[in-house]
Design a protein that fits this description.
1392 residues; alpha+beta; 7% strand; 54 helices; 49% helix; 3-stranded mixed beta sheet
Length: 1392
């Protein structure tokens, strides 16, 4: 009754009366009246849209004053020292890196403009997810960057607030917040039955109430303090939220709330009831837990949830693993369901349940300037972290929700003091790592790497929405953010159990997105999962790694991480069943465990001075670690050699992304470094031979002119050999992690100077601008003539670039002492054998030898000369011939092996090779003795493979394990195609060359001079001019360096030069001798010119034939001969979609991409040459009586008047008006590939600008517009009958021949795919023009009309080609149009 009387009175008067009662000492009556009034006004059963309750609250809080005046009064007592302005997406804000302590610091425009940031490194940006101004927060930015307002610490000068000003607020707001919570409880429906529209409806009704709370926060620090006390008061929450047992509606809402809480923990109620709670504990020991995480659980263990298995039915899904917190975790709230103790906790809970509505997020963030609130809210946020993850995974709007999560978390975790506080009190690191583990375990599948059947390893499935949509991004972003704080990163590195847990998480990405090489047919659909895979490794693995590396400044930290990396790697090797050989035709670009090990190893050696050997495992483990990064390097060459072409373009995308500037610092750079470490500690012969085996070029490394290689095609051998040599050059010359300083790395990144430069910029480098100024000049922005502004840019300083010389491009950085073992690669017999063989093959002009091969060989030799092995006293000892019969070279030092002569080599060659001797065995005893001596001295060239196998046997014998391991078959096992290849026989080649002699002969070959190097050449050498240059300069530089380091080599060079070009005593040449010499030189030059002219003439003939075939023009006898040659081989076409080459067949025809257009150009041609005047009025017009189109219409009408209609239609041509012009860009594709391509265009949602339903598309290669595909006829080139010389036959004879041709049967006697496509093309041609231009006979739709139209299209295209060529087929070259004619291809459908 009391409340009813108060409701009838004026709101302001009632508020003033209640405020006065509450200010009395005995205010019990006022409290009861206010309580009864609020129970009626804020009744949750009243619709939320009713604004009456909100008006009452405003009046009550103001205490009888006007609400606007009340707000103004409260703001006058604002004691806040922080700005805290909150903004949403697309807000323009500033970030000053000079003032910022946290990388996430940001400022509003007002605070930035009122601060002093002159000369600072700042940028203006458009916020993606929203943010808040950090001005005034000394934990996030330096005080020197504060604006004038927040630098003055306004709170010190603000008077204390009167007690009665906010008295009503303290009494009213708890009930108001409870009312909002009750509305949220009542409006929520479980996710299974709710829709997004239902949730939005509830939020829309509550928008005025939430906006009112947001308005209160803007009153300043005084009001925020009141709100903080209300939101965090546990007693008030208990009394108001749970003390209403008599209220049926409130009790119902509370039950709904309890129901919603049931599944808020990581482990649901159902799972606990089934006994499926986490059974994998990662304690201090770490090993067993990590093993379970990697998938090697004990048989029969109940790890699988039946519910999840049902959801993943039909997929090859690995066992789901459940993980629980490490033993150091004290707060079990993350596992159990949530329990709330204050309004703030429940308010955040419902904010998460409703998927972070923007208004609620803004209100919660507006409260952050209050430090007590900020601490409590951060703890509450951490408490709900697992629940956030579960809600995020279920959300249909994960992108929006992710942005809003980060909007909140970045404000909390950017503060290092606060992050350290919640890390210590709430186990933030444990919670984050565990939540990430639980998140990823939902999309694990069994790994197919190595041993698919017996593998126990599980990896993330990159095709799952979790990875494809980057749903994990906000959680990973938070983890990266807190690791940017040194105190937090230090705590992470000190917690061994947490480190092992993280390594288990990283292992989920080890070997993901496995690629299997397609050997038979092209993959039907190209998966785009590699985008998700690369993004996941970069964000979830690499970025946390860089954060840890930045703060890993204690030796013990590095040792611990390295140890756990090795342990996890060993677990991974055991889980996939790896022994020593990788599975063939498989590659994964994702090895984060290898990269963690590599980067922490580099950090320990480079920055902390730790001994490398103390951090390395045994030899066998190093051999295992080496295999998969080496497989990636070999696969890069395979992909560029088109060996993976059947896997589609996506595999090339992966190879490009792997070395792309944004990824290479975290992918290929660690891989190369890890291989450098392995190479420096493993046997060099083993490593070199392993490289050439992985690159599949062992068979190519033979001195015979012919060889058999069933693994590679002939066109693939050269790029694979170039790839292997380039890899060795990079391995031995790259110094990114082997001694280069950060400034040197930065400079090398700005000016790429390596043979295959890779990114090496260290994240967070501080000298970027100084280095940039040293190597480049800034070109200021300028205005272009059109008025637009050209962006400013940096241009290299003069003298930076030196053209395209051979390496070395610059002086190499000295090698770190720990990696001196890498030099052994350059001084091992296996590499020297390869170098000798390649020099010999290049000199002998063997196939598949290129300039790049020679360039890389030269560079390897020079690297060996510049990096000599120390304490090798036998370098200068002469070679003793009888000690060399069982090996190629006397020692391992390159300097001594350069002048060693190889006399004979035993090779295995096909019996058809020219090296095979056809004559009988030696008959005399002397000859037989000589042959036997040669046989004994001949070197065996299977040394590369034999050395590797021998070393592998030694490693296997040294293995002390009792169990015997069955090793898989080597990847070198080859598939032998049908048909017996030529039998291999053993032959002995007489070589009698050394590396020095081959270098000198190659110098002669490159310089095209017989006496390019004289015996006295070394004495006259100027070293200064050989710093950079081409191949000739590179050889001279190598010879000069070798001679300077060894007197014996200098004598050998002089002897070889004297033998190759014997010295001629100086004398005056007689006129006759000079004449003879000049004549000989002229003859040689004439022969060279003749060869060049013949090659050029052959090239022109080929070009002419291609042009002539397009228009079917007759030509000379030479053209006929070339045409006959074309007949001998079947025509092969390249499909621009699948990349395969092959002939066009009846079953799988290949088509030409064409554009069909209606054209009336021919019909407008005039007989008279007189220029026509353009009409300028209605009376003037162009009379078309003398045009080609009118003339032919008149002619046909006249013929039809006197002759039979069928005869008339065979005697004329149409198409002068509305004819069809057939053009092509020249590219071909399989018809079935084209159909798949068109289907993908139909499914593409992007606006394309053409009609796919009408058959329109763009060429997949050149992107020219097209609308049909013209099938190519099967067969062997151009038919002989299509080429005719000029004839003198009479017209009647020619007519008779045409009639005979028409009487012949069509080509397609049986129905095939080709005939069907021909019929479709004819329909396309007909649909191109209007029907009136096809029916000229008296019987529309007759077959005579069809024949006339199709044959006339051929005539139309011939006539149009004549127009393009200026009236003559033999002049004018190719068609002047962008597309060329395809008249000869169009003749195929006419056979129908």
């Amino acid at each position: 009754m009391m409340a009813a009387s108060l409701l009838r009175r004026d709101k302001k008067a009632t508020a003033a009366h209640l405020k006065a009662d509450l200010n009395r000492t005995d205010n019990g009556s006022g409290v009861r009246q206010l309580q009864e009034l609020l129970d009626v006004v804020l009744n949750p059963e009243t619709p939320a849209a009713d604004t009456e309750a909100l008006d009452w609250c405003k009046c009550l809080i103001a205490g009888g004053e006007g609400f606007e005046d009340f707000c103004k009064t409260v703001r006058s007592y604002d004691n806040a020292t922080l700005c805290g302005l909150v903004w949403t997406a697309n807000f323009v804000a500033y970030r000053c890196r000079t003032c910022g302590i946290s990388p996430c610091m940001s400022l509003c425009a007002e605070c930035f403009n009122n601060g002093d940031h002159t000369g600072h490194d700042f940028n203006m940006f458009r916020s993606q997810a929203g943010g808040a101004c950090d001005c005034g927060d000394g934990n996030v930015m330096r005080e020197s960057g504060f604006c004038r307002r927040h630098r003055l610490r306004t709170g010190e000068n603000v008077p204390s607030i009167p007690r009665d000003l906010l008295l009503m607020s303290e009494m009213v707001l708890p009930h108001f917040i409870l009312c909002i919570i009750q509305y949220l409880r009542d409006g929520y429906i479980e996710a299974d039955t709710s829709t997004e529209r239902d949730l939005q409806k509830v939020l829309q009704q509550l928008e005025p109430q939430i906006s009112f709370l947001e308005e209160l926060t803007k009153m300043g620090g005084a009001m925020r303090t009141v709100l903080t006390k209300i939101l965090t008061n546990q007693q008030t929450f208990k009394e108001l939220s749970m003390g209403q047992e008599e209220n049926v509606y409130a009790k119902k809402n509370y039950d709904k709330y309890l129901s919603a809480l049931q599944n808020s923990g990581l482990v649901s109620v159902e799972e606990k009831a089934q006994g499926a709670t986490a059974d994998v504990a990662v304690g201090a020991e770490g090993g067993a837990g990590a093993m379970a995480l990697l998938g090697t659980t004990a048989p029969g263990s109940p790890d699988e949830s039946s519910k999840e298995e049902d959801q993943d039915a039909g997929q090859s899904v690995g066992q789901r693993k459940r993980v629980k917190l490490s033993s150091s975790t004290k707060d079990p709230c993350i596992i159990e369901s949530l329990k709330h103790k204050c309004f703030l906790e429940e308010l955040l809970f419902w904010t998460i349940k409703y998927e972070f509505p923007q208004k609620m997020v803004t209100f919660l963030l507006n409260m952050l300037p209050d430090q007590d609130y900020k601490i409590t809210f951060t703890k509450t946020f951490v408490q709900h972290y697992a629940f956030i993850m579960k809600t995020l995974m279920k959300s249909h709007e994960s992108d929006t929700m992710s942005n809003r999560i980060v909007h909140i978390s970045v404000q909390l975790f950017s503060n290092e003091e606060l992050a350290r506080h919640v890390t210590e009190e709430c186990q933030l690191l444990d919670i984050m790592v565990t939540v990430l583990l639980y998140m990823m375990e939902s999309c694990l599948i069994k790994s197919e790497l190595q041993d698919e059947e017996n593998s126990h390893h599980v990896v993330v499935n990159c095709s799952e929405a979790l990875l494809k949509n980057n749903t994990y991004w906000p959680l990973v972003s938070d983890f990266i953010n807190i690791l940017s704080h040194q105190s937090v990163a230090k705590k992470f590195l000190e917690d061994h159990s947490l480190l092992m847990l993280w390594m288990s998480f990283v292992s989920f990405f080890q070997g993901m997105n496995l690629n299997k090489r397609e050997l038979n047919e092209h993959v039907e659909f190209e998966s785009q999962t590699y985008y998700a895979a690369f993004a996941a490794e970069l964000e979830a693995c690499a970025q946390p790694m860089w954060g840890l590396l930045t703060h890993c400044k204690v030796k013990e930290y590095s040792k611990t991480v390295v140890r756990y990396c090795l342990e996890t790697l060993q677990i991974w090797f055991d889980a996939i069943g790896f022994v020593d050989e990788p599975a063939p035709n498989q590659v994964t670009f994702h090895l984060p465990l290898h990269r963690y090990y590599a980067m922490f190893l580099s950090k320990a050696v480079k920055c902390q001075g730790l001994d490398l050997d103390s951090l390395l495992p045994d030899q066998e483990m190093l051999m295992k670690i080496m295999v998969h990064p080496l497989q990636i390097q070999a696969s890069l060459s395979e992909i560029h050699s088109n060996m993976w072409v059947r896997n589609g373009l996506q595999i090339k995308g992966q190879a490009m992304t792997y070395v792309q500037s944004h990824f290479c610092n975290s992918m290929i750079d660690p891989d190369i470094y890890l291989l450098q470490v392995c190479a420096s500690r493993l046997d060099p012969d083993y490593f070199i031979s392993s490289v050439f085996e992985r690159f599949k070029v062992v068979d190519l490394l033979t001195m015979a002119s012919q060889h058999q290689n069933a693994v590679l095609d002939s066109e693939q051998e050269r790029p694979m050999l170039e790839g292997a040599l380039t890899f060795l050059v990079i391995l031995t010359s790259l110094r990114v992690h082997l001694g280069m300083t950060d400034d040197e790395i930065l400079r090398s990144e700005m000016i790429p100077e390596n043979p295959n430069p890779k990114s090496g910029i260290v994240p967070g480098s501080c000298s970027f601008e100084e280095m940039l100024s040293a190597v480049a000049d800034f070109k200021a922005p300028v205005f272009e003539p059109g008025g637009s502004m050209q962006q400013g840019m940096y241009t290299p300083k003069a003298g930076i670039h030196t053209g395209n010389p051979w390496p070395p491009y610059k002086e190499r950085t000295p090698l770190h002492p720990c990696y001196k073992g890498l030099i052994k690669l350059l001084h091992c017999k296996t590499l020297h054998i390869v170098i000798f063989t390649l020099l010999y093959k290049i000199w002998m002009d063997h196939p598949n030898m290129s300039e790049h091969v020679l360039c890389m060989v030269m560079y390897l030799i020079e690297l060996g000369l510049d990096n000599q092995v120390q304490d090798n006293k036998e370098d200068e000892e002469p070679c003793i011939e009888e000690h060399c019969h069982d090996s190629w070279f006397p020692g391992t030092n390159l300097l001594s092996n350069l002048h060693h002569v190889i006399n004979f080599v035993r090779v295995r060659v096909p019996e058809t090779a020219p090296e095979v001797k056809r004559e009988a065995p030696p008959s005399t005893s002397t000859e037989a003795s000589s042959y036997g001596q040669n046989l004994r001295e001949a070197q065996v060239f299977s040394l590369v493979s034999e050395r590797r196998r021998k070393f592998q046997e030694i490693i296997n014998r040294s293995n002390t394990e009792a169990t015997q391991v069955v090793r898989p078959k080597s990847s070198s096992t080859r598939w032998v195609p049908p048909g017996a290849p030529p039998q291999l026989v053993t032959e002995i080649l007489e070589i009698r060359e050394s590396m020095l002699s081959l270098l000198i002969k190659l110098h002669q070959k490159l310089s095209s001079k017989q006496n390019s190097l004289s015996p006295s050449w070394l004495d006259d050498m100027d070293m200064s001019r050989h710093t950079h240059g081409d191949g000739i300069t590179a050889i001279e530089r190598i010879l000069t360096k070798a001679a300077a380091r060894s007197c014996q080599i200098k004598r050998s060079i002089q002897d070889i030069c004297g033998k190759v070009c014997p010295p001629v005593p100086p004398k005056k040449n007689s006129p006759a001798d000079k004449k003879t010499t000049d004549k000989e030189e002229r003859r040689l030059r004439a022969r060279e010119r003749q060869q060049k002219l013949l090659a050029e003439f052959a090239s022109r003939q080929k070009s002419f034939m291609e042009t002539a075939m397009d228009v079917e023009s007759p030509d000379t006898e030479a053209a006929m001969d070339l045409g006959a040659e074309v007949m001998e081989s079947e025509v092969l076409y390249d499909c621009v979609i699948c990349g395969q080459s092959g002939p066009s067949t009846d079953d799988r025809p290949i088509g030409l991409v064409v554009l069909l257009q209606a054209s009336s150009v021919l019909g407008h041609r005039c007989q008279s040459k007189e220029a026509k005047k353009l009409p300028t009025s209605d009376e003037e017009h162009i009379y078309a009586a003398d045009t080609c189109g009118v003339a032919h219409d008149v002619r046909l009408t006249l013929l039809q008047r006197f002759f039979n209609d069928s005869s008339c239609l065979q005697s004329v041509s149409i198409g002068w008006d509305g004819g069809v012009y057939v053009q092509t860009c020249g590219h071909t594709l399989h018809i079935d590939c084209h159909k798949s391509y068109m289907e993908s265009l139909r499914n593409d949602q992007v606006l394309q600008g053409f009609s796919v339903d009408k058959g329109e598309f763009t060429c997949p290669l050149c992107r020219q517009f097209a609308n049909s595909v013209l099938p190519c006829r099967p067969g062997r080139g151009t038919e002989a009958g299509s080429w005719h010389t000029a004839t003198n036959k009479k017209t009647l004879v020619l007519v008779k021949e045409v009639e005979d041709l028409q009487e012949k049967l069509g080509l397609f006697q049986t129905e095939s795919n080709l005939s069907k496509e021909m019929e479709l093309v004819i329909k396309d041609v007909k649909n191109t023009t209007q029907k009136k231009y096809m029916d000229y006979g008296k019987n529309p739709g007759s077959s005579d009309n069809d024949f006339l139209f199709m044959y006339s299209v051929a005539r139309t295209n011939l006539e149009l080609e004549l127009v393009h060529r200026g009236g003559h087929l033999c002049s004018g070259g190719a068609s002047a149009s962008a597309k060329r004619s395809c008249l000869s291809e169009y003749s195929s459908p006419l056979y129908l």
